[in-house]
Amino acid sequence: MSINIDSPEGRIIRKLIPFSTMPNNIFKVICGKITIETAHSGSFLFERGDTNSDLVYLLKGNISLEVAPLKIEMIKAGSESALFAIAHQFPRKVNAVAKGEVYFLHLNTVFLTPPDAKELEKKEHQEIKKAKKADSADCIATLLMISIIRALPPVNLHKVSQELEEVRVKKGEIIIEQGAFGDYYYLIKTGECLVTHKNSEHAQAIKIAKLQVWNTFGETALISGEPRAETVTALSDMTLLRLHKNKFLKLIKEPSLSFIDFIELELWQDKGAVLLDIRPPDEYEKHHLTNAINTPLFTLRMQIKSLDKNKLHIIVCKDGKSSESAAFLMKTYSFNVKIIRNGLDYVPKGALLPNSQSSDERIKNKESIEKNHLTTSPDLTLNSNKVNQALIRENKKLKFALIELKARYVNIEKENQAWEEKYNGLLNQVVESKFKR
Q: What whole-number distance in Å separates Cα of residue 21 and Cα of residue 425?
């Protein structure tokens, strides 16, 4: 149903985030896309695992956020929690259950997400596109355009919006320079810029990417603590929102990244996960993990369009630090990403594949194997195939047994750590009590 912005419902919706500070022309367009519904006591507004991309806001009544059998939070209409979209991560992490009769609205995120220009024409969203160019566009509305920020907890999102600083730059101005130390994370509100990289001081600059409205940059140096690896130059007059390094690390980076231990890698690969080794090619050639694809960090932004968003990507580097930068970049483009904790430094050496042979030696060995295969008799080949199949089956059994043992080992380590913490706590109490006497 279309909502009149001056109606009682319109005034309630106007107080919600990000609608509260939208320009009237944007808010009027959005109200034409909103649907208001009623839910009876005990019914679900949405269920855990739902992938529907509608944002849901509570207008009247109470709802409970639950993960059976636990009740996580009770949300009441008009409360501070109800100012934000309810549990807006996708897929849904909880059930939203009506406690009594409730009124709620839902709005597809497509109306708050910047689609491609061609898609805009197809879906007839030209009004929204023009409205978004208004100088007075609200910073929270801008934040909701960026997938990695939209997935943040509502409290973090609100704090980020309060900490953002708006800056303007002129065409041709250098925003960040390769080799400098970074202090800020940037979000593009208007305009476009060019990202370039030099392999050496006097080398020709390589064009990495052109960034436009709702793109972000500057996170790599903040996460790694190393100097800027790229130069970003304004291609037009620009309006940027920037967030200081300390706030970025605490409010955005920490809640956005997900880690696994090396012993979990095989389980995820069995489920179809893709392993990316983001070290430089020369380091990858020395040794790497089985099935790891070498995608150096400095080329990741250029290659990102060729990666499959439907698959989980697991990232590994030497010590885990560069992996955080790569994972954050990929999550900015809506990829599902996990990081191998502490990188290859904590991986058993026996798990790494050495590349000690030269390319010529590998070719000769391959030709030798193929020649021997061609001269093998059919009977021997048949018997060999049977043996191979038996070995494969046995290898799978051993593989799953090893994974199970590794999982048990991790649990024992955690229990041991917990007992040590309890012991130390009790010991401190005993020492303190003796001193008090």
A: 50
How many domains in the chain? 4
Q: Which of helix, strand or coil describes residue 154?
A: helix
Q: Is residue 146 part of a domain?
A: yes
Cα-Cα-Cα-Cα dihedral sign, residues 76, 80, 81, 84: positive
- Sheet containing strand 259-260, edge to edge, reads 259-260, 337-340, 313-316, 274-277, 293-294
pLDDT in tens, 138-164: 566 667 777 788 888 888 888 888 889
222, 253, 284 - which closes a domain: 253
Q: Are 76 and 82 in contact (CB under 8 A)?
A: yes
pLDDT above 80 (res 256): yes
Please indicate whether residue 411 or residue 294 has the higher confidence score (pLDDT). Answer: 294
Residue with tokens 């208007």: 190
pLDDT at 366: 42
- CATH number of the domain within which 264 lies: 3.40.250.10
173 and 235 housed in the same domain: yes
Domain assignment present for 427: no
Cβ atoms of 331 and 307 closer than 8 Å: no
- Taking CA atoms, 422 is separated from 133, 411, 412, 427, in Å, by 58, 17, 15, 9
Q: Which comes out higher in pLDDT, residue 433 or 256?
A: 256
350-357 mean pLDDT: 67
Do 144 and 247 sit in the same domain of this protein? yes
d(CA 322, CA 314): 13
Helix, strand, or coil here: 354? strand
Which is nearest to 272 in space by CA: 323, 317, 329, 336? 336
